[in-house]
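I'm curious: can you give me some protein's one-letter sequence along with its backbone structure tokens because I've never seen that pairing?
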Amino acid sequence: MNVKNFFSKEQKEEILKAIQAAEKDTSGEIRLHIESSCKGEPLDRAVKVFEKLKMHKTHLHNGVLIYLAVKDRKFSIFGDEGINKAVPENFWEEVKEEMRAHFVKGDFATGVSKGIRMAGQKLKEFFPYQQDDVNELSDEISIGD
């Protein structure tokens, strides 16, 4: 499966707009990484991708990675240490359940976009947008093998 073509051009634009809209309300940074398969646990893989994308280098350590292995139908959400210190346990469960509901129907673009918007709303509580906020990470979809 060629993950570069998993989302259509229109779906990629929808996801990009969701990221930009979510980041308008928070100083948090949100990225999506997709790849075909995931050996092992998706959260473990998300941590590795998070570091590879240098997401741990944000000023407030408030980066969030949504990880999706399309062939294996696995996904995870990983938040940096700044987020994990501030938020309650199971902070991402509601977001994951909403995404899963769309994934089951095969509507991955909507699931990802809704998950991104929900993540932005949740981040807004703990990391509201700051006037001097700088977009520290690319909004583009990261694509692996």
